[in-house]
Amino acid sequence: MMMYLLVIVAFLFSLWAQFRVKGTFNKWSKVATANGMTGYDAARHMLDSNGLSDVPIEPVRGALSDHYDPINRVVRLSEPVYYESSISAVSVACHEVGHAIQHKVHYPMLALRHRIFPVVNFASGIAPFMLIAGFLFSSFNLIGLGIIFFSASVAFQLITLPVEFNASNRARQVMVEQGYIRNDEEHGVAKVLNAAALTYVAAALVSLLELFRLIAIYLGNRD
């Protein structure tokens, strides 16, 4: 019963984290940067100053759809981030460039995440079917395999945490050193990046607790 309660609490925490990142982004998107840099300006300057002038930046539709594409080596920024000059826009843009820099320097955790992605993609797709079939037919072997496959997805989310925190740290350091923001703007940058990081923490926590719950059910039924 306690494990179910923890999973529910973690799920609610995840929902709260998603609302918080949207609210924080919206709040600081209304605060313009003192130097007038847009998300594109900051991203372009950060890429160029780190020897990544060959990496393009593309605008994409959708809110908070920003990401770095390691396969095509492209930084994609949502239109509000790409075009606007706000604390939120510059923070998110520089965070995504942080991933491009990680790619360039072969940041170990990012390299590991890329290496295991095909396995995780397959495992996360088949795990639910194995678990459902295992519980329906009372097959401990299928349940066990489903838990193993689900574990790969949990491991991927845990590996993602240091990747995201490192990208944010790189972004904040460059933003201050290169003068993208003033000292009195660091507070807003921290709010935006910390809120975004919280969503990854929440997602990892939900998955980890769900894994523990499945293992507890599996061991309990075997006894």
What keyword list fits this structure?
3 strands, transmembrane helix, 223 residues, three-stranded mixed β-sheet, mainly alpha, single chain, elongated, 74% helix, 7 helices
Q: Tell me the number of structural domains.
A: 1
Between the first and last Cα atoms, what is the distance in angstroms?
18 Å
Our count of helices gives 7
What is the element string, with H for helices and E for strands? HHEEEHHHHH
Q: What's the story with the biggest beta sheet?
A: 3 strands, mixed
Radius of gyration: 20 Å
Range of strand content: 5-15%
pLDDT < 50 stretches: none
Helix proportion range: over 70%
Instruction: Going across the biggest sheet, name each strand in turn.
Output: 1-3-2
Short description:
By secondary structure, the protein is mostly helical.
